[in-house]
Design brief:
Layout: H1 4-34, H2 55-63, H3 66-97, H4 103-112, H5 118-131, H6 138-163, H7 166-174, H8 179-190, H9 192-207, H10 211-216, H11 225-230, H12 240-273
Helix pairs in contact: 1-12, 2-12, 3-6, 3-9, 4-6, 6-9, 6-12, 7-8, 9-12
Length: 276
């Protein structure tokens, strides 16, 4: 028992260190947001502000279109996530259930598309949407987000469907259900954790995107929060308080969504990792 104690202490220390390193950027963003601007450039840097100033959080709402940017991001994220899941659920189920010699190759090819940098797709997407009359359009950006989210969501859902016993669907068909009805009444409710995991992954991709939004949207009123915050960088002066305060506010919606569905995400990822 005594021999295991150092190992446990090492595990605990490693976990604390990893958590500290992961959370330090958020802590530094908060310190920058509440530190008076006159003291930000002083050396050595202040790790614990003596006189914290929260005025930057009120200023970013009062003087800029942060609320509009957040609303734009929410619209783009929700719409693209719903569209991606509507396609990925059926695609993942098909790759999981319908055996074909091309199924595995198709799944790998689908995942390989995630390796393509977004910048390489910018020019063809821009030309295509311009020809369709959808340049500077939220609809065009939603389509771009959806195509970017589908491969990973499909791969995650395929793994989760693989973990669900096919006997459940066969039993439903014996009871008189068609394959389509068995999918909706039996398989789809059981796939809730996997769908939740795919949903949060798609939401994070859409909410954090900058490249597609910056390249496809020109109107400031349509900008998502990522492009909006980038516009706060001045040519000669950078107000770091406002930028960090806006960035922290922009994190809160995704963080709240993650907290709400965290247990489903863990269940979806762990269950989809192995076959049942």
């Amino acid at each position: 028992m005594s021999a295991l104690r150092p190992i446990r202490l090492l595990h605990a220390a490693t976990i604390v260190l990893v958590c500290a390193l992961s959370l330090f950027p958020l802590y530094w963003m908060f310190i920058t947001a509440v530190t008076p601007e006159a003291r930000l450039l002083q050396y050595p840097p202040v790790f614990v502000p003596v006189e914290p100033d929260l005025s930057a959080f009120g200023r970013v709402f009062a003087t800029g279109p942060l609320v509009q940017w957040l609303l734009n991001s929410a619209i783009l994220t929700i719409a693209s996530m719903a569209a991606a899941l509507a396609i990925s659920v059926f695609a993942g189920y098909s790759l999981s259930r319908f055996n074909s010699r091309f199924a595995d190759a198709l799944a790998l090819l689908l995942l390989a598309t995630k390796m393509i940098p977004a910048t390489l797709l910018m020019v063809p997407l821009y030309v295509m949407f311009k020809d369709w009359g959808m340049s500077d359009s939220r609809v065009g950006l939603i389509i771009a987000y959806t195509t970017f989210e589908i491969p990973f969501a499909t791969w995650m859902l395929k793994g989760y469907f693989d973990s669900l016993p096919r006997e459940l669907e066969q039993a439903a068909e014996v009871d008189g259900c068609s394959p389509f009805t068995a999918f909706f009444r039996v398989t789809l409710p059981l796939a809730g954790p996997g769908i939740a995991a795919a949903a949060i992954a798609s939401a994070v991709l859409a909410w954090g995107d900058y490249d597609f939004a910056r390249g496809l949207l020109a109107s400031q009123s349509k900008w998502p929060v990522t492009v909006g915050i980038n516009s706060l960088f001045g040519e000669h002066v950078v107000h770091w308080n406002d930028i960090m305060a806006s960035s922290l506010v922009s994190i809160l919606p995704v963080l709240a969504l993650f907290v709400l569905v965290e247990r489903y995400i863990v269940a979806g990822m762990t269950s989809g990792a192995v076959k049942g």
